[in-house]
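ARCHIVE CARD
CATEGORY: sequence design from structure
SOURCE FIELD: tokenized fold
FIELD CONTENT:
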């Protein structure tokens, strides 16, 4: 059984125009995504979320390591939720809904 991994990339887009942000995010998704890595595809389903932000950061939000503090994850989920609400294209919403469905299916399978 393959393991699901969800990675959130926050990309600093300070002082960039909307079109520049969209182009940069598209380029990053196309160039640096892990979901097509042949070695990883064998054992993992990898879902990546790219968020425009005022800072650059990368976090694995699922599976949750035992040592992770849950308020940190709650903050990240709140940030993702806000980005979804602010996104006029609704591109983040469909990504997020797909991830939530996959997590629910995984939880059902593990019961």
């Amino acid at each position: 059984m393959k393991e699901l991994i969800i990675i959130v990339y926050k990309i600093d887009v300070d002082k960039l125009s909307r079109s520049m942000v969209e182009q940069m995010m598209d380029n990053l998704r196309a160039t640096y995504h892990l979901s097509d890595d042949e070695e990883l595809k064998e054992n993992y389903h990898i879902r990546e979320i790219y968020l425009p932000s005022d800072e650059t950061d990368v976090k694995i939000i699922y599976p949750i390591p035992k040592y992770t503090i849950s308020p940190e994850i709650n903050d990240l989920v709140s940030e993702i939720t806000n980005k979804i609400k602010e996104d006029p294209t609704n591109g983040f919403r469909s990504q997020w809904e797909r991830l939530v469905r996959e997590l629910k299916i995984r939880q059902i399978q593990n019961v």
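CARD ANNOTATION: The chain has four helices and three strands. The chain has one domain: 3-109.
SHELF: design records, drawer C
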